[in-house]
Amino acid sequence: MEFQVGDKVMLKVSPWKKGHTFWQTGEVNPRYVGPFKVLERVRDVAYKLDHPEELSRVHNTFHVSNLKKRHADEPLAVSLD
């Protein structure tokens, strides 16, 4: 899978189930959060994302396997509040 700078992507949250709870909203935990804008491609399999201040403790570079392209018909992002 490949993304371009400026693409909107969704971030898979399951890798952090045991360590981070930033996505929990009191509802069913989502599999993906976002969308986030791709800022830069880092090597062949990683991308740097523009993520909100609420995620400042989470590194902003992610392996392509943790990303999926956001489609217009997907629901809006889960609030991080």
Automatic annotation (TrEMBL):
InterPro entries: SH3_Tf2-1 (IPR056924). Pfam families: SH3_Tf2-1. Keywords: Nucleotidyltransferase, RNA-directed DNA polymerase, Transferase. Coiled coil: none annotated. Residues 6-70 form the Tf2-1-like SH3-like domain. It comes from the Eukaryota. It comes from Tanacetum cinerariifolium. This is Reverse transcriptase domain-containing protein. One of its GO terms (molecular function) is RNA-directed DNA polymerase activity.
